Amino acid sequence: MASVGNVTALPVVDLGEAPGVLRRRLREAAHEVGFFYLKGHQIPAALTAGVLKAARALFALPEADKDAIAMVRSPHFRGYTRLGGELTRGEVDWREQIDIGPQRSPIGGPGKPDYLWLQGPNQWPAALPELPGIIDEWDAALSGVARTLLGHWAASLGSPPDVFESAFAGAPATLIKMIRYPARAATAQGVGPHKDSGVLTLLLAEPGARGLQVRRRGSTQWIDVPGVDGAFVVNIGELLEVATRGYLRATEHRVHLEGAERISIAYFFNPRLDAQVPMLSLPEELGARAESHPDPSDPIYSVYGRNAWKSRLRAHPDVAAAHGYAVGRLDGENSFPGRGNEVR
Question: Which PANTHER family match (predicted)?
Fold first, then answer.
């Protein structure tokens, strides 16, 4: 694997390479590690600078402005989360963030799967009227990169490049998080060890920003992943692991607070809430190297909405309680108990 500097062993993949070379490198990086740096993506530097500037402006707002769009007000898990307001594996995460998804009408309600409440309107800070436009531009740019990656991955695994397209048709449930981790304070846990519940994640971090660490399956060693100028950090979500029966690997990662504050923008590329990820038929030589290690205490659901609902309830029990969601029903299937008053 290629290295960047002297502090990481993550692979580096260039999206501008010849298709044959690119597909081999993508397949190897996703199989061996599940994380890599992506260059050659053609996202303008001015756009990345603009979205980071917007994030800093957001977190610089007075607390009252941010609390006015607190996630607890939204039955769709959208909006601002204060420092210490989120949990990973029951432990407090020390970060503040805003969760933003596609701006759509609510579709949840009685008799429907709970996970449909994940669709709905966003909450925007009144002091930053330009933020929705910046986010729309960011979403359009990164969705193109993510779709390109999925097509190359599918082809590298012996499937048609468009095999995943039907799962994303109509209303993909992408999610954007603007995140601020303060300089190390009372706890070292910026966000605890976890795997992402969707398909893939594109992470933008300021060059040199530290704290992100990954741990390969079966290893006890955490690998540092500093921000690299001009590169995204890409990682595999649980649904790609399911789709490939474990050949592509969702890798555990965390943010361990150290030194200066950290600003990052996470883009989670996810299919429709009701979409079931297709199961790929791998070539024999690849299938023989697939490894599936299901955890009965933490199942992975092939329907994206069910998998996302599980994660949201665990991370934000205050939101679940505020809107009457049954935390004991983590799979999100037809357990609607509450009223769900949407915030516009």
Answer: 2-OXOGLUTARATE (2OG) AND FE(II)-DEPENDENT OXYGENASE SUPERFAMILY PROTEIN-RELATED
Nearest-angstrom CA–CA distance, 25 and 40 = 14
Residues 196, 315: contact at Cβ < 8 Å?
Answer: no
The string of pLDDT tens digits covering residues 283-318 is 999 999 988 777 777 888 999 999 999 999 999 999
Q: Beta partners for 120?
A: 103
Q: What is the CATH number of domain 12-323?
A: 2.60.120.330
Ranges of each domain in the chain: 12-323
Q: Residue 310 carries which DSSP code?
A: H
Show the beta-strand stretches assigned E in the chain.
Answer: 12-14, 35-39, 79-81, 86-88, 91-93, 96-100, 175-181, 189-194, 200-205, 212-215, 223-224, 232-236, 252-256, 262-269
Stretch 225-235: mean pLDDT: 95
Query: HSE (CB half, 13 Å, CA atoms) of 189?
Result: 14
Buried b (16+ CB within 10 A) or exposed e, 105-135: ebebeeeebbbbbbbbbbbbbeeeeebeebb
Residues whose CB is less than 8 angstroms from the CB of residue 46 and which lie 6 or more positions away in sequence, other chains included? none
Angle, vertex CA 71, rays to CA 169 and CA 84, nearest 5? 120
Give the C-alpha separation, 90 to 150, whole Å: 32
Is residue 152 classed as helix, strand or coil in its secondary structure? helix
Q: In the predicted model, is pLDDT for residue 337 greater than 90?
A: no
- Separation between Cα atoms, residue 306 and residue 320, nearest integer Å: 15
Task: Say how many residues make up the chain.
Answer: 344
Question: Residue 334's pLDDT is what?
Answer: 53
* Percent of the chain at pLDDT exceeding 90: 81
pLDDT at 344: 20
Bridge-based pairing state of the strands 175-181 and 96-100: antiparallel
